[in-house]
Amino acid sequence: MIVKIPATSANLGPGFDCLGLALQLYNSITIETDRPFRISLTGTYNEGIATDETNLVWRTMRHLWESINYPIPTVALTLENNIPPARGLGSSSAAIVGGLAAANVIAGTPLSKLELLQIANTLEGHPDNVTPALYGGITLAVSTENGILPRVLGQGTNLKAVVLIPNLRLKTEKARSILPPNVSRQDAVFNISHAGLLIDAFIRENYPLLKEAMRDMLHQNQRSVLIPGMFETLKAAEQAGAYGTALSGSGPTLIALVPEISKDDVRQKMLSTIGQFGVEAQALTLDMDHEGVIFSEK
Ligand code: HSE
């Protein structure tokens, strides 16, 4: 069996810890049952990935089986990692969502997607990457007293994403530790209104609204000190034709949502602008993922 999990971009500006979208860049997990335990790595980003029992995909699979009292099978896993780690593109969410989806199928699919989301949220800590990784599309995750309430807002039809991935790793814990514990009422109102506008823009596919709608006052200003040239690069993307721009998750990746016609200009402008700040980076132009995690028989 092969499980494919999309990369994700969280926050999208004002939607801190609740909005996200899925992208057509995938990690995959190939599972062979009734084999001696073994984890093999393929793909581009394998540095620092454990191949023993501490591996995050494997620990997540065990967690699911233990929580439903399913006897732990021995499996051989091949992990293909194409989502760069610690860049703000949801690599740890992909590991968790992939592990849960794989373990659930092996156990005979006892849990629904909504139940997997609740477990994924507990393991990951915030729901904004795991929700689009499970459902695909552009998603809102609402934390309620009964768990996460997921909504798929749209599919981003006719939108491309240019993701500029700086060659520096930034752990989410570090990028969260610099945020102040309290926010002003003024900033809260700014983000509530802009997140509302952003949802309106996605539902109606009214993309010219994105430029204003993706503005944020809760986290991007503080985090810009960790990413040289961040605001200059986002501005350059807008000037080159992007509808809207944001820091992807907790960074350091920057995301521009663009019309097809501007994608090459935006890509080049983002690369050249961040280069002026001495930051090496690669840029990918990606389509939206519409399905979320999927599995197929080998
Ligand atoms: N929303 C998180 C943050 C990152 O910005 O810290 C992804 O969960």
Task: List the total number of helices.
Answer: 10
Order of helices and strands: EEEHEHHHEEEHHHHHEEHEE
- CATH fold-level name of the largest domain: Ribosomal Protein S5, domain 2
CATH architectural designation of the largest domain:
2-Layer Sandwich
Unreliably modeled segments:
none
Q: Care to count the β-strands?
A: 11
**Using only CA atoms, what is the Rg?**
19 Å
**What distance lies between the first and last C-alpha atoms, to the nearest angstrom?**
5 Å
Helix content: 25-40%
Shape: globular
- Please report the first level of CATH classification, the CATH class of the largest domain: Alpha Beta
Tell me what portion of residues adopts beta-strand conformation. 25-35%
Tally of structural domains: 2
Structural class: alpha+beta
Oligomer: single chain
Largest sheet: 7 strands, mixed
What ligands are attached or bound here? L-homoserine
Tell me what you see in this structure.
With 298 residues, the chain is of the alpha+beta class. The protein folds into 2 domains: 2-153 and 289-296, Ribosomal Protein S5, domain 2 (2-Layer Sandwich); 160-287, Alpha-Beta Plaits. 36% of the residues lie in helices and 26% in strands. The chain contains 10 helices and 11 strands. Helix 1 crosses helix 2 (91-106) and helix 2 crosses helix 3. The N and C termini lie close together (5 Å). The structure holds L-homoserine (HSE). L-homoserine is lined by residues 10-11, 16-17, 126, 128-129, 172, 175-176, 219, 249-250.
